[in-house]
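[Q] Does anyone have a clean structure-token version of this?
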Amino acid sequence: MNTIYGIRSILEAIDSKTNIDKVWLLKGQKNSIAKSLEYKLKKNNISYSFVPIERLERFKSKNHQGAVASISPVVFDNLEDVVSKNIYKKQNPIYLILDNITDMRNIGAIIRSASATGVTNIILPKTESGRINADTVKTSSGAIFSVSISKVDHIKDAIFLLKSNNIKIICVTEKAKKTIYETELKNPLAIVMGSEKKGISNSVIKISDRSVKLPMKGKIDSLNVSVACATVLYEIIRQREFS
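[A] Here you go.
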């Protein structure tokens, strides 16, 4: 994960269209150049947060000058373009929406399974999500470079876009009554997976088309999200290709 230090360096990176993933700004800066950076971050829809000096000094370089940016190792695709492209090609897509998943290694493992099962696109929120970093790349075993990934401002906006294009939204949650094996998965769809701690947001569940669960027969009542995701994706493949 490449890192940029300093306000001027980050401004230059934005102007050169560098794929910036996240920016950390020192709290309380009121000078004009800091305000200029904040303006450009908003204008270019780049995720940023204000942090205390101690947070910035965790980075390897102490010469941060009040701002640090991370560059993503992948280029994110525009979701609307991905959807339009698949409609034009008349494909039967599988979208994967990750809600509240912050562990970078879990995201990497999910990306690896997504690549193996031909997922069309993975959708991540710009906030409340783990960043794509070196751990993610390593855990994905390089699969991250072969899967389309999009970042969106809000998960619900992505869901409304997909639904408007006749793509069914299916949430995988222990709150569901029916299992994944009782659900038809042969048509265009988007699978929503949530973190083990927070799960899928209630507001997301409410606007989905249906919720399903994985049957749990032992004393453990949940699976690691990457394992659960792989199980669901292979059930989609089974239904589409072997039934």
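[Q] Thanks! Anything notable?
[A] Strands lie at 2-5, 20-26, 48-51, 67-71, 94-99, 121-125, 149-152, 168-172, 189-194, 210-212.
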